[in-house]
């Protein structure tokens, strides 16, 4: 019997080691999943909204296709869910390969030719224009299709980590799976410990019966109170050490997660003083982002539009047809802020600013220039702000972490051809190739803004 007891003790130790390794491996895998999700958002390309981009294919280099897909397609498409465009899983069953190639290279040309499928798809997605990709060769498209095919055939868990969902929904989906897995491991450990305790009690009972059978008098031990048992257990160094180790692991995991997510506000969606719908203005009415955020193309800040920009339209547009002849309550808030009388169309002397709540907020140590990204790099607003044209209420789409930005800078192509911003840099590289001396002045080192910022 003593050997049986020792056996179960060894099982308990092994169970503890296996459980610890399982939890550690799971936490490591979850961190990699989160990192891949952030990387997928960072490498979102310049595909426009509104149409299926690729189809599954059996031939091609999936690895090369994945790089192209992340660069050009992920801003509007994902494998297993709709973003701006539809989900791409199973697209090969819905579209012909030759048709897809034409659509990817120039969807507008296909629509202009009167192709019924192209026209139907264009109208179905609110006539949002997909960016043409004439630079992609047939081999490039084959590689993209192979990548889509490979991703679509992955298990649900793997596919779930490849895409990026909108805002907080993304984190919630993956985190839900993670919590269930971790909870299952914890329940398994607790059940195993309970079984071990029951078996130990059974062993003690069998030992007592065996001794009684051999004629050995076994003294009955009075049942101990809970306090006595707890004090005796507290004197057990192995148990105390095990409990301390579990506590350290738990607190370390909670602390690490809290520190890792400090300052990350992905999914943040505050309630604004006026319920401005980007879905209506940018989506349905197709108002260009820079009509309101006019600073994005020429300055560091995109700028918050002043109320008089709203009045360019709402001086006449009151949405009264939806409110029994009365001005929309949200438009009335603009009038109140401007101290504007819609009847006499005059402004009073007591205007008040609209107190918008900032959503995207970088730390002071980070410098971000909108004009450099919008005008120089030609990056679309959706690559950082997500499908803004479909948001009734804006939320923070991207994590905006340093890792997210760095990954984008590592994978994004620099389009310097015909771009005056890079002309001087290209000229300097040509001089270096010829062995000509390059001074800081040539690199713009005597510009005022270099020192007087």
TrEMBL record:
Keywords: Heme, Iron, Membrane, Metal-binding, Signal, Transmembrane, Transmembrane helix. Gene3D superfamilies: Cytochrome c-like domain (1.10.760.10), Cytochrome C3 (3.90.10.10). The chain crosses the membrane at residues 180-203, 239-260. Residues 60-152 form the Cytochrome c domain. CDD domains: Cytochrom_C3. It comes from the Bacteria. PANTHER family: CYTOCHROME C7-LIKE DOMAIN-CONTAINING PROTEIN, LIPOPROTEIN CYTOCHROME C. The keyword Metal-binding applies. This is Cytochrome c3 family protein. PROSITE patterns: CYTC (PS51007). Residues 1-29 form the signal peptide. It holds the Pfam family Cytochrom_C.
